[in-house]
């Protein structure tokens, strides 16, 4: 609301008070504008600050949080604006690396492919580091949030690492997808795992945790999928008996009668 900002500026009693208003909560207005893609507000705030050094302070605050805020909400135009304004230009590498490549990870979990492409183009030498950060967190978080396009983008950019992405944290992407009933992600991971026998390893990971997570979340569709895929079928009895019939206890505790009937 640029007109509100201009109104407040008109009513403020002194230039010093205007600067104090802008600095309130560590330049939070600047961060809010970036997170919501309001370029005109960012330019207004830049224009009104007394010292150009303060623009760098706003951008650098909290380890470049303003850049991450724009990435997580998918505002590429804001990212380009910030990249244009940062000084020295070498600091752009620090922005991309901040919080263990959080901008890339957060863009992946929200399916902002345009942001992923921008970051890859801006720092091609760091692309592998972005993808591998925190044991392939971008891939795992994309799976958790049902971001198929992001999964495909990441797989396309690093085909030689795809199996490591799938296996990361003991097949956590598969577990996340099951816990959140993302059947499309389960099918995608099943189609990509090599060798195909490793599908059983995904199902068995952490003592069949994928079953327990599906039970706790009352995801019958996932349970049907897993039952169909378990091999040999004798393993189903082992799954049911695991940890003294934990799946039954979980279903009863959470009141999932449909799971108990299943």
How would you describe the overall organization of this protein?
The relative contact order is 0.06. The chain is built from 15 helices and no strands. It has 262 residues and is mainly alpha-helical.
Question: How do the helices and strands line up, and which of them pair or pack?
Answer:
Layout: H1 2-11, H2 15-35, H3 39-48, H4 52-72, H5 76-85, H6 91-109, H7 113-122, H8 127-144, H9 148-157, H10 162-179, H11 183-192, H12 198-216, H13 220-229, H14 235-253, H15 257-261
Quick recap:
The protein is built from 15 helices and no strands. The chain is mainly α.
Features of the shown structure:
mainly alpha; elongated
Enumerate how many helices there are, as a single number: 15
The average pLDDT is: 88
- Low-confidence runs: none
Based on secondary structure, the structural category is mainly alpha
Give the distance, in angstroms, between the N- and C-terminal Cα atoms.
Answer: 54 Å
- Specify the overall morphology: elongated
Helix proportion: over 70%
- Main sheet overview: none
Mind telling me the C-alpha Rg?
Answer: 24 Å
Secondary-structure element string: HHHHHHHHHHHHHHH
Strand content: under 5%
Secondary structure: number of strands: 0
């Amino acid at each position: 609301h640029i007109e509100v900002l201009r109104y407040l500026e008109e009513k403020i009693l002194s230039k010093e008070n205007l600067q104090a208003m802008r600095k309130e909560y560590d330049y939070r207005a600047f961060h809010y504008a970036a997170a919501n893609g309001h370029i005109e507000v960012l330019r207004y705030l830049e224009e009104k600050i007394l010292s150009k050094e303060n623009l760098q302070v706003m951008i650098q605050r909290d380890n470049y949080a303003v850049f991450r805020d724009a990435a997580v909400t998918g505002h590429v135009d804001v990212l380009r604006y910030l990249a244009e304004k940062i000084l020295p230009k070498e600091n752009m590498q620090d922005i991309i690396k901040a919080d263990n490549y959080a901008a890339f990870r957060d863009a992946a979990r929200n399916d902002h492919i345009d942001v992923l492409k921008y970051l890859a183009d801006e720092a091609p030498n760091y692309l592998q580091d972005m993808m591998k950060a925190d044991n392939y967190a971008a891939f795992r978080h994309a799976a958790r949030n049902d971001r198929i396009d992001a999964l495909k983008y990441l797989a396309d950019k690093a085909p030689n690492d795809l199996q490591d992405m799938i296996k990361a944290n003991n097949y956590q992407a598969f577990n996340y997808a099951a816990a959140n009933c993302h059947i499309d992600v389960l099918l995608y991971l099943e189609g990509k795992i090599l060798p195909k026998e490793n599908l059983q390893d995904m199902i068995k990971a952490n003592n069949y945790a994928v079953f327990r997570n599906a039970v706790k979340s009352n995801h019958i569709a996932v349970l049907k999928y897993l039952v169909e895929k378990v091999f040999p079928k004798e393993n189903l009895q082992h799954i049911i008996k695991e940890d003294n019939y934990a799946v039954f206890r979980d279903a009863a505790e959470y009141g999932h009668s449909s799971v108990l009937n299943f």
